[in-house]
Amino acid sequence: MKGVILLLMLILHVKSFAQPAYNDCNSALELCPNKLFPLTNSGANKTFCPGCEDDFSFCFSANNTIWLTFTTNNVGGDVQVDFSSLNFETNPAQGDQLEATILEASIPCNSASYTAIGNCVSNSTSPFSLIALALPANTTYYIVLSGSTNGVGVTSPAAADFDVSISGPGINRSIPIVNVFGSAINICKNVVFTATAQLTDCPDTTDFKWFINGILTAETTGPIFQTTNLSDGDIVSVETSCYILCPEIVTDSATPVLVYDFPIDAGPDQLIQPGETAQLNGTTSAPIYSWSPSFSVNNVLILDPFVTPAVTTTYTLTATENGCTKQDFVTVTVDLQLIFPTTFSPNDDGTNDKWEISGIEKYPNCFVRIYNRWGQEIFQSTSYSKAKAWDGTSNSGKLSEGVYFYIVDLRDTEKRQFKGSITLIR
Fold it and tell me: What is the mean pLDDT of the chain?
């Protein structure tokens, strides 16, 4: 058992904590076109066993390898990988030459399936390139780089920092484009405006960021954005990114939106007493306008009609100009005063048989309680009204003549409460 463990340790060459993440073929760093990648093989090792990733001898033998990968585009063609800005470690007895080549692997990371592609560079001390011609489309390749041990007295493979870039028609990507279009150039104020982003050569898109005059307004998962919050001359623009690997940000702006607007004002809210008349005071530049609802309005086609509502009513002024329609609102509140009767006579003569509170219907959430002279509750009602008015009875039947007491909670925004006495007469 100890021999097996020792063999595994020799095969794997237990890795140091300084190893680059792309030290293994299965963790190969994917390159995207025309981007500079600062890399290193410092701290890398080799994994050597029959068929393992470093079991090859294409123009050099592996020492401290790193692995890169790329996939050709939908067309294929020539590819060039450039290594530049080489900066070698200078430890005693350490090499100063790099070796690299491109491999095709029908079985990923299995050396028995490797085929060398293009040129092979060995013993390089200065910037160099790997070139592969006429590569087929949509095919994955590997790049392996190792430090050399060539040279007099060299016992440790070369290690260096360097930059890597890849280019060529076989790897280059189409330039992604986004165009944003608006549903219309001319719109009315507060009307829905729809912007649509159309993408070209943009796979793996992220969310869309939408801006109004350069200010981020919304993010959408799809290419459509809607808003009613535009003013004349506003510019809607979009930003998204294409490609998961080395994402490219694309932006575009729609044509400035022409928003037509005009003034409209239904006037200030008013308070009247029951039976009184109020005059509305609407203003607008629009040539066409009208009021609704029409009942209790003496003329719906003028800006300052007289209204006589029986209950609190909200009137709508609707105006149209240049094909655009706008509305504004005014509320005329009818002050329905509460009147609490001090006496009633529940004698079934059809007159004053119940304790009816005038104006209580204005407060549908009210809560009414009645007490006898000893403070015992004998009646309660929520949403008190004429139909639910107290008739001088309790659970025990008809109550005798005398004085009773009430508490009325309106449960309105002011949380008003009224207390008083009632005289019951038989």
Answer: 91
pLDDT at 59: 87
Instruction: Give me the torsion for CA of 211, 213, 214, 217, rounded to 10°.
Output: -30
In the chain, where the domains are located: 2-167, 177-260, 264-334, 343-424
Place of tokens 């006898």: 372
User: Is there a cis peptide before residue 293, judged by omega within 30 degrees of 0?
Assistant: yes
Indicate the pairing of strand 258-260 with strand 186-188: parallel
In the structure encoding, which two tokens stand for residue 106, read together? 């029908």
pLDDT per residue as tens digits for the range 344-362: 999 989 899 999 998 898 8
14, 260, 269, 293, 322 from 282: Cα distances, Å: 86, 20, 11, 15, 19
Query: Model-level pTM?
Result: 0.62
Alpha-helix residue ranges (DSSP H) falling in 333-373:
none
Give the Cα separation of 175 and 299 in Å (integer): 64
Whether 100 and 144 have beta carbons less than 8 Å apart is answered as yes
CATH topology of domain 177-260: Immunoglobulin-like (2.60.40)
Q: Which residues pair with 199 in a beta bridge?
A: 178
CA 118 and chain centroid, separation: 47
Assign 57 a pLDDT band (cuts: 50, 70, 90).
Answer: confident
Evaluate if residue 1 carries a pLDDT over 80: no
203 or 92, higher pLDDT: 92
CATH code, residues 343-424: 2.60.40
Class of domain 264-334: mainly beta
- Band of the pLDDT at 2, cuts 50, 70, 90? very low
- The first and second tokens of residue 263, run together, are 């003034």
Pairwise CA distance, residues 348 & 418, whole Å: 28
- Residues 6 or more apart from 388 whose CB is under 8 A from it? 381
> Residues 42, 89: contact at Cβ < 8 Å?
yes
In 3D space, the residue among 171, 164, 169, 205 whose CA is nearest the CA of residue 29 turns out to be 164
Arithmetic mean of pLDDT, 398-405: 94
Which among 350, 356, 348 has a CA at the least distance from the CA of 426?
Answer: 348
Q: Quote the tokens at residue 277.
A: 């008349």
pLDDT tens digits, 242-280: 998 889 999 999 999 999 999 999 999 998 887 899 999
| 177-260 and 2-167 share a CATH fold | no
344 burial class (0-12, 13-18, 19+ CB within 10 angstroms)? buried
Tell me the sheet residues that pair with 311: none
